[in-house]
Amino acid sequence: MKNPFFKNKGPFKIDKLLSLSKIKNSDNFKSDLIKNVSDLTNATNNEITFFHSSKYENLAKKTKASYCVTTNKLKRYLPKTCKIIITNNVILSMAKLTKVFYPDSVSDYPDANLKKIEKTKLKNKIKYGHNVLIGKNVTIGKNSILGNNVVIESNVVIGKKCIISSNVIIKNSIIGDDVHILDSCVLGKKGFGFYPSSISNIRYPHIGSLIIENGCEIGSGSTIDRGSMSHTIIGQNTFLDNQVHIAHNVKIGKNCIIAGQVGFAGSSTIGNNVMIGGQAGISGHLKIGNNVHIGGGSGVINDIPDNTKVMGYPAKDLRSFLKEIK
Question: Comparing 202 with 277, which gets the higher pLDDT?
């Protein structure tokens, strides 16, 4: 996956890559050149991916990666064109591999290239408030407005007719046209990913971006993480209320309405025209279909098919929920 925000230190020969990552090279791989790390879906030839759960077996069968980090139990799902690296802990091993390619993605260091907007080429192109800081190579479209104390870090892209309200921080993000970002949002930060250890927790690199499509609104105090291995995506014309949290790799479809204090765990996919009531929670790695309604305060721990209304914890069909509380 090509990333505009983090520099790829590769390519590496596979034997050196495994050595640098301190992963056992049991098959004595030596000469193949590996250009990048990627997920199962987007990986191509000369890239390395990972496969850690049978939930993704259909994706594993179709991967075009040259190498895959996986377990003995899961290796049978991978195509013969993909060379297999067996490990006891797939996530930890992939974190080490990703860190070799993208060492700057492990921690969110403050952007050292920030300048006051008055000292940049944008000073006469857009309207802005006080104490606005801009990084290198930032692009902002016509008729966009920045509020007070806004920080936009290097390489961020913002489209036309956008309103970025006060105290907003944006990094590692690509934002479309006519997007409204309300006060005190933090967009594109690293996600909450680490391998726990009693001595020192190992942080997982997050090399993805945040993509917000045209016509969206992000409510005050919301936090949206960038992707870890893929992108976090907010679909066209989706509106978020205040204090919504969206974790890494989440994909939200078009025309969704998400009320206040809703939380999404990582890597869940939300369809189009979904409505979610306040304080609901969506667990990780789930698939929520199109035209789904989720009642406020619900806890979603399973996939939900299209055209379904659910409520409760665990979230269930709305009619069943209403019968149970009578």
Answer: 277
Preceding amide of 314 cis, omega within 30: yes
Q: Give the chain's length.
A: 326
Q: How far apart are CA 122 and CA 139, in angstroms?
A: 8
Same domain? For 91 and 139 the reply is: no
pLDDT reported for residue 313: 93
First to last CA, the chain: 51
Residue 187 · residue 224 · CB < 8 Å? yes
Q: Is residue 245 annotated as part of the catalytic site, yes or no?
A: no
Per-residue DSSP letter, 304 = B
SS3 251: strand
pLDDT score, position 200: 84
Catalytic choice (130, 248, 285, 293): 248
Q: Among residues 73, 101, 129, which one ends one of the domains?
A: 101
Residue 262 confidence (pLDDT) above 70: yes
Residue 297: CA count within 13 A, CB half-sphere:
2
The answer on pLDDT for 24 being more than 90 is no
Same domain (yes/no): 133, 97: no
Q: Are residues 91 and 221 in the same domain?
A: no
Query: Is pLDDT of 252 > 90?
Result: yes
- What are the tens digits of pLDDT across the range 76-95? 999 999 999 999 899 999 99
Domain extent, residue 44, equals: 12-101
Does the structure show a pLDDT above 70 at 73?
A: yes
Residue 107 lies in a domain: no
Q: Is residue 304 part of a domain?
A: yes
Q: Are 245 and 189 in contact (CB under 8 A)?
A: no
Q: Closest Cα to residue 91, out of 244, 214, 193?
A: 193
DSSP letter for each residue of 190-204: --S-EE--SS--EEP
Torsion from C-alpha of 104, 225, 304, 52, nearest 10 degrees: 20
Answer whether residue 61 shows pLDDT above 70.
yes
Same domain? For 156 and 120 the reply is yes
Model confidence at 120: pLDDT above 80: yes
Chosen domain end from 101, 131, 161: 101
